[in-house]
Write a structure and sequence with these properties.
4 helices; alpha+beta; two-stranded antiparallel sheet; globular
Length: 166
């Protein structure tokens, strides 16, 4: 069974949320089936990638407001790289994860590089014409996940997310 590295940039920065997708369980009152293979993912830290985070669509799960996507093209402005948390998972888990996230929204797979001989992959959608501000509830999960991922201060975490909300 081959592995890949999944790059999380939104609510899956938060381990508790990501594990609900992998192992199944309840997160913030919503039940997740999890992947067919419930093998625990391995956290491999985080990196900067030259893609901008933006918020779009309208998610019933998050008060009918926007959710995070990565731009479909590389970001040329050096002010807007994104932090991604690297999770080593099985290829089958990546497929199940994309199904749970919703292939209709997250149908674009982007290769962000390689680490330890494994491809770093993420998925996103190109919804620039459907931009929508995230709810405070969703933003709180993103902030908690980024703090857990990077160890940054609250001020650094707020500054990071604010630049993508402009």
């Amino acid at each position: 069974m081959s592995h890949v590295i999944y790059a999380a940039y939104g609510s899956n920065l938060l381990k508790e949320r990501f594990l609900a997708y992998i192992k199944g369980g309840t997160f913030m009152g919503i039940h997740y089936e999890g992947c067919k293979d419930k093998t625990e993912p391995e956290s491999l830290g985080w990196i900067w990638v030259p893609y901008r985070v933006y918020f779009a669509k309208s998610s019933g799960r998050w008060n009918n407001q926007g959710v995070a996507f990565l731009s479909c093209e590389k970001e040329t402005n050096p002010e807007y790289p994104a932090v991604v948390r690297l999770w080593k998972i099985k290829e089958s888990q990546l497929e199940d994860l994309q199904e749970q996230e919703g292939k209709g929204w997250y149908g674009e797979i982007i290769t962000l590089g390689e680490k330890d001989g494994l491809k770093i992959l993420t998925f996103t959608g190109c919804w620039y014409d459907e931009k929508n501000t995230p709810s405070q509830l969703y933003l709180d999960v993103l902030k908690k996940g980024l703090k857990e991922t990077t160890g940054w201060t609250d001020e650094e975490v707020d500054k990071y997310w604010e630049k993508f909300l402009k």
